[in-house]
Design goal:
The structure is a homodimer of 307-residue chains. Chain A is an alpha/beta fold and 307 residues long. The first copy, chain A, starts with a strand and ends in a 7-residue tail after the last helix.
């Protein structure tokens, strides 16, 4: 069992889908990553910042799950990062209606001293300079996983490429992989991105699953076909948390282990989209996780004997 | 080993992609289905019609592979069905530039007497009344598979629904499944379509793979992530031919067998898109097929032990 350091926003979200409005709820990449990783009972610590308006009950979400918050700074005078968005009826496209960076604007991440020796680091989607700062504080991580998005490619490509050169795994969606690499084919995009640094590239295709590339090896995890996607917010971060949570638990960073990790990750992400925000993750039982893993197995496993 | 009756166009195609122009080449759903099914060495017969302009060398494509053409009518005075299209740069969207129905306009399919007892029937994408006429000629098929497209939903929905009520398996792409069912979720779409007749629904998602639904069971076959898609023409028909070819070979129409069938189908379709038209299928060796099946296996198979 390894330690896991998670860097990512802890935030307020307000989401609207064709099913209704969430009101202001707990959100942020760090939150989803932490909740997903929690399912592997790893010793994880969230490095983030919130304002004085962040309620005690949300802090309790982490403490109840023994997720360390020594690195979760509370800026009493500031306000918590806020995002408001509306999804299109396909539950894929979305419009950001409001972003208030608030305390996130000048976020200086501080990794707690007892977690500087963590084996696994999950750099959630944040300014590349914040991600770099966290990396500099770590002693000797065995596995660094980075998530990012097109916004940083547009605004801070040089810094982003600097972080990418120092990591082991990048998780990125298909359009972002195309933007980062300049290649339409995801197989080619992967190769270009590998040359930037990470030996392992995970390309998330939303409802179409996720591809795992490691050097010349390739693996695919489908997304679970859903009756209904209720709210996709946080699914990518839940995926990242499931992925790193499993790897931190096993301390096995082989391709074989990573294949299992993206299955676990896809499995957890499939729950995330069933309710608003992290609601479904908060109530999720180990039995539900296992039962759905059985569905994942039956969805993909077949028996063809080849000479 | 069962017999397979294939109904589908045998045609001339002219394709343009960002990689170039094909010139006039052999095409048509029946052609691709036949070539794909051939890989299972089944006893198959193509029911179709061509004009007097259809060259001897194209007929030889079938006879060389022992694909029966007693039901391939040659209308000496007529011209062969012709389709010309141009693909968008994403190699997914396409515009039809020209369609000449020619001899296909009044096609009256005739199943050869020695194939009326075939176990498996593949009704390729054609006018629903043509598909119905073939079904009426069959004695007691064990498995009837139907492919169709949005065009017939727009033009001949009532006749299409009549055919759909008489078949065992429908293969259809995701957008068509949504149109036919009125449901966005493919899980729900499948359920609506099952209620129309077929116990088994195969939803083709192009580069995103294919879903197999049978009653309450679900299976997913990914498409092979490709370096380059050169020309997607015929990939769906190749898929249908691989699917029915495998099932006709094994005479096993169980869900377990169909899972294998869509893996074989996806595997063959992945070759089809590598060159213009059926070129790649024509030169394909059994070794290549097996080697790529190994890639499919490693792409999807994992080992998670669940209690």
């Amino acid at each position: 069992m390894g330690k896991l350091v998670i860097v990512g926003s802890v935030a307020f979200d307000e989401v609207e889908t064709l099913f209704g409005k969430s009101g202001v709820i707990l959100g942020g990449a760090g939150t989803y990553i932490g909740l997903a990783a929690h399912h592997f009972e790893v010793d994880s610590s969230i490095v983030s910042v919130v304002g004085g308006d962040f309620p005690e009950e949300y802090l309790k979400v982490f403490s109840d799950r023994k997720i360390n918050t020594d690195g979760l700074k509370i800026e009493k005078e500031g306000k918590t990062f806020f995002w408001r968005g509306k999804y299109h009826d396909d539950l894929i496209g979305r419009d950001t209606l409001e972003t208030q960076l608030n305390v996130m604007e000048n976020f200086q991440p501080q990794v707690p001293p007892t977690y500087k020796d963590a084996e696994v680091v999950m750099l959630g989607n944040l300014h590349p300079s914040v991600q770099l700062s966290v990396l500099e504080q770590m002693q000797n991580p065995k596995l660094v996983v980075l998530d990012t998005m097109n916004f940083w490619m547009d605004q801070n490509m040089n810094e982003l490429k600097e972080v990418i050169s120092q990591i082991d795994v990048i998780t990125i969606n298909d359009e972002e992989a195309r933007q980062l690499s300049g290649e339409h084919s995801l197989v080619k995009a992967n190769r270009v991105i590998q040359e930037m640094g990470p030996k392992t590239v995970v390309i998330k295709k939303g409802e179409h699953g996720a591809l795992l590339f490691q050097e010349d090896q390739m693996f695919f995890a489908p997304a679970l076909p859903m009756e209904e996607v209720f709210d996709p917010t946080g699914a990518g971060d839940t995926f990242a948390g499931g992925f790193t949570g499993y790897l931190a638990k096993t301390n096995d960073y082989s391709f074989k282990s990573m294949k299992k990790a993206i299955i676990y990750a896809s499995n957890l992400a499939s729950f995330c989209v069933e309710k608003f925000g992290p609601e479904r993750l908060l109530e999720l039982s180990p039995e539900e996780v296992t039962n759905r893993l059985k569905i994942f197995k039956s969805l993909t496993q077949f028996n063809i004997d080849l000479a």
